[in-house]
Predict the 3D structure of the following.
Amino acid sequence: MAAIRERKQGNRVARRAKTTRKRIYHPGPPIADEAGLLEATQRLRAKDPELVERLIAIGGPPPLRRREAGFAGLAAIIVAQQVSTASATAIFARLQARIVPLDAAEIAKATEEDLRACGLSNAKIRALHALSQAIVEGGLDLKNLADLDAEDAHKALVAVKGVGPWTADVFLLFCLGHPDAFPAGDVALQEAAKVALNLKRRPDAERLERIAERWRPLRGVAARMLWAYYRGVKARSGMALADGSR
């Protein structure tokens, strides 16, 4: 419960920050497959060899984990907000089984009772309804997001009520393959940075973004490595992962 409260606090801080600080993503070719991720990993190793070697030694090569860059992919990310990976997987499986096909039109028609039966919270039900309404009414075109600059794509996503900076950055990272997307508000990513960089305390989103400047334009690769490293460290120690670890 403490980790979930911290994630909520991190999301509130990130939302306040997005109104005062412009988000900047360095451009680069999308990471679309394992070959692209390997090449990007090698480039990041050249930038920060000591850290990358240490991360890979514990976490192994970073996983690709691409998602479908459409409604289902974004819905899965919304479902994953503030819950464990296992819970998110179970809830999303029930959602896919109950809403067929899983698209904006069907979610728009679904009742709150339909969605609550899948295990969704009221906040996530509102977010999915707001997302589906934005798509059905033409306010958000997911198909064209890949053609936008990352800053504009992020802005279009967070304009939908219930889609915060973390959700938008995870979509940019795993659905669009943006190489510099970096969800600094992620609790597990913050914990990973604390351990990997031997910090005295877990960095908040603002500090983690400053730390991540060293990894541009490949912050998305660094995020994958940090998540994998964190899982490896915790597996060795037998400790539980923070909620939301990739």
In short: The chain has a mean pLDDT of 90. Residues 72 and 101 are 9 Å apart (CA to CA). DSSP finds 13 helices and no strands in the chain.
